[in-house]
Amino acid sequence: MFTRRLFLASSSAALWVPALARAQSDKYHFTLGVASGTPRETSVILWTRLAPDPFNGGGMAPGLVDVRYRVCRDEAMRQEVRAGLVSTSHLKAHAVHARIDGLEPGREYFYQFYYGDDESPIGRTKTTDPRAGEARLALANCQAWETGYYAAYRDMAEWAPDAVIHVGDYIYEGGVAPLGPVRREYGGVTLDYSVVRQHNSPEITTLDDYRNRYALYRSDRHLQAAHAAAPWIVAMDDHEVDNNWAGLIPQDPDKQSDFEFAVRRQAAFQAFYEHMPIELPPNMMRLGGEMQMYGAYRFGPAQVNLLDTRQYRSDQVCGDGFPGDPPCTALDDPSRTMTGEVQEAWLLAQLRNSDARYNVLAQQTWFAPFDYVDDPENRKRNMDQWDGYPVQRQRIIDALASDVSNPVILSGDWHCAAAMTVHKDPDDPSTRPVAQNFAATSISSICSWHGRIDEARQANPHVKYANGTDRGYLRCIAGARDWTASFRTVADAADPDSPVSAHAEMTLRDM
Ligand SMILES: [Fe+2]
């Protein structure tokens, strides 16, 4: 494996230049940066994609090529611990996934890719360590390209956490909005924001569309910096495919047949894999094939159970969205699920068997209830979130209440930061608190409904903090004594270099 040629090449990337690579393009190949993810005690997946013409299919000629990588202990890339070649081709958009095994737990590593004359940026990654005394985790979601820049990611990259948890809406599937300031009325509140940059096509539906959309998002320098600064663990939400999809059901079945949606979902899954540092899903190329995104990761005192609440969920009921119709009988159906039976059984077993101080559910939507009308007889809730799946939510609460150490639930999706207590009976705040639910605000997506949330705060005494006006992300520090959640907010989402600071900070002691 470790040939003399590779060894020589490790001292200078330019020594190893495949002739084919030179012939293909004079442009820089690593336009989309580098990433790492799926961190374990002794392994991590490194990612890049050869894309000399990133917004037009990538710009590589069809065929197989080899890309070289090196992994070192130091940022200067002198103390090499691994080096090798990875093959890729047009069949995966010339994306590169290199799984590196045999690493030491809880260690920083630095990595770089080489192709032709080109060297990629150098990335930093870190293996996990269950014995670490502390874990530093960033939670991100919802990064609509058009409505804001990614200053939040610059701040996250500077923090260099142990891992970034992304719970979805990494891309948005929509078309192009006109540039400039927007003023909208929503629920009696005036919203002012700007479309600061534009999507690169009408609504995306084909594999080429999705690839070009990922390339657009990944071209952002701050997003690239956050990927290069830490390993990510990722699970998609709805906009990576289509708004509010559920299983194999689109939001608008009148506009796309079941077959059309299955083809579209497969394309979306493939492009997601091609742009994320994750394992190859075994049956991804099959129509209707699954892509397992859920999994457990141990960061020091925190066991993070990353959930997928979109791919296996039952269709939304009672109005399919926000705010839903008054409760209908379908809500009481115990077979309705956010996770599917298999994932639920897996999660409950994880919780039962965990010896971690903090047991984290990192997932897409708000887990705690939220009433948009102060009338218990005529509740209006968001049917796309856990409020639309109350029977399964109660099963999970019951499991958390039975001797699970410090449950912390992390959420995205709603473009609104929040700190909420989940009670044993989630509708009755006089019952025992069981878990804390922290929601990160969006990186850049607008929270049009923040006025509705602010208005309804009194009807939701379990909500200790809510902020839908600011963009940002959540920093979590799981320590030996307590858990700190810091809501980082961007001063001006229309400024890529905006300052970012803590808007609120909360500390949890043992629950
Ligand atoms: Fe979103």
UniProtKB/TrEMBL annotation:
Signal listed as a keyword: yes
Keyword Ribonucleoprotein carried by entry: no
Residue ranges annotated for the PhoD-like phosphatase metallophosphatase domain, each copy included: 137-487
Coiled coil: none
SUPFAM superfamilies, per the entry: Metallo-dependent phosphatases (SSF56300)
This protein's UniProt keywords: Signal
Residue span(s) of domain Phospholipase D N-terminal: 32-127
Signal peptide: 1-23
Annotated InterPro entries: Metallo-depent_PP-like, PhoD-like_MPP, PhoD-like_sf, PhoD_N, Phospholipid_Metab_Enz
Name of this chain's protein: Alkaline phosphatase
